[in-house]
Amino acid sequence: MRTAIKRIRTTAFILILIQIIGVILFSIFYFLNEFDFQVIVEPLYVIIAALAIIVIDVIFVWATVSSVSSIRQQTNLKAADVIGSDVQEVYNFAMLGLVVVDENNIVLWTNELFKNRHIDIVDLNILDWQPELFHLSDSSDEAAVVKIEINSRNYEVKLLTEAGLYIFKDTTDFETISNYSKEQAPVVGTITIDNYIDVVKNEEDSNDLV
User: Fold this and answer.
1) Hey, which CATH number is domain 79-184, 3.10.590, 1.10.287, 3.30.450, 1.10.10?
2) Cα(first)–Cα(last) distance of the chain, in Å?
3) Which of 80, 83, 103, 150 has the most CB atoms less than 10 A away?
4) What's the predicted TM-score (pTM) here?
């Protein structure tokens, strides 16, 4: 989609440039009256030309919006269409997020976990969005995992390089329980007393005096 948008921008720039050059040339010929331009060009022709430019611009805008909408629909697939509804239920239960990227790390597709959590990263560079993930793309270890935080939730992320697939595992509940257990764990202390025998002997002597 990023390529399509770039192509549309280039086309729009060329179209606007042509129109600007046309207006400049028309103004020069008209006001300098080159080749009796003021006599040749009647006001009606100017109005027709202006209307033609407006119509061309409207058609271009309409075609652009239609093209972008069509491309957006093609990339906005549901996870159930890609991996099947049964498997998707498993991913939802396990709170697994899936992100597919292209060779330039542009996000092409995400599953429903991101949509449900209002994380819209389609068409973004995933490394710009989460720079910590660069360690995965730069690592040769397929088992490498990176921990990140998104919207106050913790995730462990793994990359399947050949598939261009990032797997996000929500570990928020596990880490919350783990931290709670650590905070509530009992603490055992050890006290060492020098000359313990002398202390006991002094206590015995005190008891004898009493």
Assistant:
1) 3.30.450
2) 95
3) 150
4) 0.52
